[in-house]
Amino acid sequence: MKSREKMLFAMTKGLKNNFPVVIPYPSIFLRDHWNEITDQPWWAIYNLDPSSRLEVEEDFQKKLDLDWVFCGMCPSKEWRENHKIKIQGNHVFLINILNGEKKELQKESVGGAHIPINKESIINSVEDVDKHINIVDKGILIQSGIFDYAKMVVEKFGSEKFICAGICTPYWEALKDYFGFKGMMINMYKRAELVEYALRRIMMKAIEVLKAYAEIGIDGIWIEECLASANEISLNHFKQFALPYTTEIISEIKRLGMKSIYYACGNVIDRLELIIRSNPDCISLEESKKNFKIDIEWINKVVAGRACIFGNLDSIKILQNGTSNELREEIRKQISIGREYGKFIMSLGSPVTPQTPLSRVKEYVSLARQEST
To answer: Is 167 exposed, middle or buried (0-12, 13-18, 19+ CB in 10 A)?
Structure first.
């Protein structure tokens, strides 16, 4: 079977062998290992010319040959037409053609930049919600050109690879983009109705994006949930502010004919059963860390074939620091557990670390394919 067929079989009927192999957040791996992956200049990531970014993805797939290809939005067609890249010596500038504004671009550092989550809330009223959270029809979104790169990925790889795009859950987007961590925690207690109104708006906005992704031929959606684990919010708050809106997102993905992959970060031991009842096609969890334990055998026991399980191989202890034998043994263990129900995709619990070289990830992919034959 081709990669796309293997992914779809693993997510639905299940497999007995030849399980798909992926890594989560391939864009992070690309960022941290750019020069190992491609000869394209680093500013190709800015997508002024989506075809240049597509060449980077072609290089990526030649190096790793994963069973999926990730894509996302790019700047609008109007924005791309009104900007250009200019090289001056060792400096790279983004030029606004309309007004001549010039901004120097910097290559993103290995490991990425710190993303603050405890910023001040920009939502303090219903009016603020309506002002900041705009719901745009999927037709207008597509016409704007922000899905042009995703279209190219579908056209280039869609016949062979599983094409995946990502979104945040409404809870996670509300926290990181609008309320901030502190504001979210306070408002869930003091102004629950305001938070719920914002969550509904974010959900409606996301549904239009999902409709657009479905129309251009995306196969699956990676749904990222952060700071909604037992380490951050109570089970009751999870039931009230996170789960209902994510369940609606999952339902919409299914209605649109795509597959959902729910990636829940953190300690979900007390809420995994609820997550599975929200009916995702796939569940992906972190590896054991941060004083909690998430064992693949336990995941398999709880899920019991009701969803496809993504492996959660330890990206630091095993992939980065383990011996080749330890890597093989952990892959063998996870695949053996996945065979019970057949709904299994070999993966990592977290993104590949900056210290893990391309050669090691290629070894992981090769061993996973060997052990699942």
So the answer is: buried
Contacts of 300 (CB under 8 A, 6+ apart): 309, 337, 338, 340, 341
Render pLDDT for 285-333 as a digit per residue (tens, 0 to 9). 999 987 889 999 999 999 999 999 999 999 999 999 999 999 999 999 9
**Where do the structural domains in the chain lie, given as residue ranges?**
3-76+112-371
Do the beta carbons of residue 76 and residue 144 sit within 8 Å? yes
Q: Which two tokens stand for residue 334?
A: 């996870």
Distance of CA 294 to the CA centre of its chain: 20
In CATH terms, the fold of domain 3-76+112-371 is TIM Barrel (3.20.20)
- Its pTM stands at 0.96
Average confidence (pLDDT) over 189-213: 98
Q: Which of 31, 33, 2 is nearest to 18 (CA)?
A: 2
Q: Which residues make Cβ contacts (< 8 Å) with residue 90, sequence separation at least 6?
A: none
Angle between helices 296-303 and 324-338 (to 10 degrees): 10
CB-count exposure of residue 279 (10 Å: 0-12, 13-18, 19+): middle
Average the pLDDT over 16-39 and give the result: 96
